[in-house]
From TrEMBL:
Gene3D superfamilies: GHMP Kinase, N-terminal domain. It comes from the Bacteria. GO terms for molecular function: 3'-5'-RNA exonuclease activity; tRNA binding; tRNA nucleotidyltransferase activity. The keyword Mitochondrion does not apply. GO terms for biological process: rRNA 3'-end processing; rRNA catabolic process; tRNA processing. InterPro entries: ExoRNase_PH_dom1, ExoRNase_PH_dom2, ExoRNase_PH_dom2_sf, PNPase/RNase_PH_dom_sf, Ribosomal_Su5_D2-typ_SF, RNase_PH, RNase_PH_bac-type, RNase_PH_CS. Belongs to the RNase PH family. Phosphate binds at residues 86, 124-126. It catalyses: tRNA(n+1) + phosphate = tRNA(n) + a ribonucleoside 5'-diphosphate. This is Ribonuclease PH. The gene is rph. NCBIfam families: RNasePH. It is an enzyme of class 2 (transferase). Phosphorolytic 3'-5' exoribonuclease that plays an important role in tRNA 3'-end maturation. Removes nucleotide residues following the 3'-CCA terminus of tRNAs; can also add nucleotides to the ends of RNA molecules by using nucleoside diphosphates as substrates, but this may not be physiologically important. Probably plays a role in initiation of 16S rRNA degradation (leading to ribosome degradation) during starvation.
Length: 238
């Protein structure tokens, strides 16, 4: 039934390669099917003005899509002089999702910026960015701990994200682009490894959905996050 031939509850193939950039404190290339995102984490011994003096750390994120990450060339946002609304919304989502899994007291008064650059897009780029972003963040924190700059791990719980939707009347896990573009309902589910919800984004695209369908999608999301967290732990040795 699915264009890819996958079962309703089957994820696309997932791989996470770490240490892909020389200079970043943490980096990985996450591939979820044909969606590929380069994620890096940068540590800075400073925080934004609204955090300064609080003793708390800060985690923020930036997101972008390369011009040929899609079927036709996208114009670089820098040439337009500003970021698009979608970009701003996604990078805010990534930042607050990652912060939900961070003990900001243990992090100390420093900032970690997670950059997520989409190399190739085939649906679920924000979910891949959050999942890969946590890996880059974890690797950066491991460097802080090894250097003795933080005494206890400030990352409370792995954070991962997956998309689910109603496609051809059936709940399906991990939408690729052909499904996402035709889904009657689509949603993004961000949660911790212990199934604590951080954010759920669900919308009907021409067809309403029931509470039972929403629950079915949430159940699928939990299955997907379990698999993603296993990949995160494997990649980071955590």
């Amino acid at each position: 039934m699915r264009p890819s031939g996958r079962d309703l509850s089957e994820m696309r193939s997932v791989s996470i390669e770490t240490g892909v950039l020389k200079h970043a404190e943490g980096s990985c290339l996450i591939k979820i099917g044909d969606t590929h995102v380069l994620c890096t984490a940068t540590i800075e011994e400073r925080v934004p003005p609204f955090v300064k003096g609080s003793g708390l750390g800060w985690v923020t994120a930036e997101y972008g899509m390369l011009p040929r990450s899609t079927g036709s060339r996208m114009r670089r946002e820098a040439t337009a002089g500003k970021q698009g609304g979608r970009t701003v919304e996604i990078q805010r989502l990534i930042g607050r999702s990652l912060r939900a899994g961070v003990d900001r007291v243990a992090l100390g008064e420093r900032q970690i910026t997670v950059d997520c650059d989409v190399i190739q897009a085939d649906g679920g780029t924000r979910c891949a960015s959050i999942t890969g972003g946590w890996v880059a963040l974890k690797l950066a924190v491991q460097k802080l701990m090894k250097a003795g700059d933080v005494l206890s791990d400030p990352l409370i719980d792995p954070v991962a994200a997956v998309s689910c939707g109603i496609y051809a009347g059936q709940p399906v896990l991990d939408l690729d682009y052909p499904e996402d573009s035709e889904a009657g309902v689509d949603g993004n589910f961000i949660m911790t490894s212990t199934k604590r919800l951080i954010e759920v984004q669900m919308s009907a695209e021409g067809a309403t959905y029931s509470r039972d369908q929403m629950n079915a999608l949430l159940n699928l999301a939990e299955l997907g996050v379990d698999q993603l967290v296993a990949k995160q732990r494997e990649a980071t040795g955590a």
